[in-house]
Amino acid sequence: MGDPTTMAAAGMGMTIAGGVVRAVGDLFSGEAQSNMYKYQGGIALARAQNDELKAVWADRAGEENALREGLRGRFSWGNIHAGQGASNVDVNTGTSVNVRAGQTEVTQMTAAQTRTNFARKAHGFRADEAGDIATAGAANVAAKNAITGSYYDAAASILGTAASVASEATQASKSLGGNITTTGADFGVPSYSPYAQYPEV
To answer: What is the sign, positive or negative, of the torsion defined by CA atoms of 117, 121, 126, 128?
Structure first.
């Protein structure tokens, strides 16, 4: 059997080593979680940028399609006007004017409806963008909290280890008849005097 003092020292050394490993693990775990949240935040920001591009394209598409509807309407208006003239109808009075006015109104309504439809699409994309920006912000906060939390966890592991070592030192001292002396260094790691059991000559 080994010397009890040496065995007690080895046991406390293992406790200290375990505490250090846990503390380091807490720090690495916090860093890993922080990186994960940062990655998620980056993905959310990329989605937000894509949403904004879609919204811009929807706005442009709305204007382009409304312009196309206007051109088509004016072309129809011109055909109506030409047809009225070819029919020897007075194009400046009565029904002829009303027909062309009706065609103009239809063209304007169609163009307006086209703009509205694409504006709704753009609004939907921008709503998605706002949600993605909020998600990115939350992920950024979580990343910072993960680092801060890891510091607290590591500190708790160190304090817990110190308490365990102090308790082990007390138990060992009692079992060896009070021959273990402790210092405040190294988180309360006890120092041993292998000659304490022998009386002074």
So the answer is: positive
* CA-CA-CA-CA torsion sign (1, 21, 190, 165): negative
What is the DSSP-derived secondary structure letter of residue 92? T
pLDDT digits (tens, 9 = 90+) for 39-50: 888 899 999 999
Q: What is the DSSP letter of 198?
A: S
Residue 200 and residue 17: Cα distance in Å, rounded? Answer: 35
So what's the pLDDT on residue 187? 42
pLDDT reported for residue 174: 63
Residue carrying the six token digits 């709503």? 127
Vertex 128 angle, CA 126 and 132, to 5°: 115
Q: Is 180 helix (H, G, I), strand (E, B) or coil?
A: strand
Tens-place pLDDT, residues 124-154: 999 999 999 998 888 888 888 887 877 777 7
Query: Environment class of residue 174 by beta-carbon count within 10 Å: exposed (0-12), middle (13-18) or buried (19+)?
Result: exposed
Residue 113's nearest CA partner among 65, 76, 78, 145 is 65
Geometric angle at alpha carbon 158, from 27 and 156, rounded to 5° = 75
Tokens read off for 68: 């196309």
- How far, CA to CA in Å, does 34 sit from each of 38, 67, 150, 189? 6, 50, 10, 33
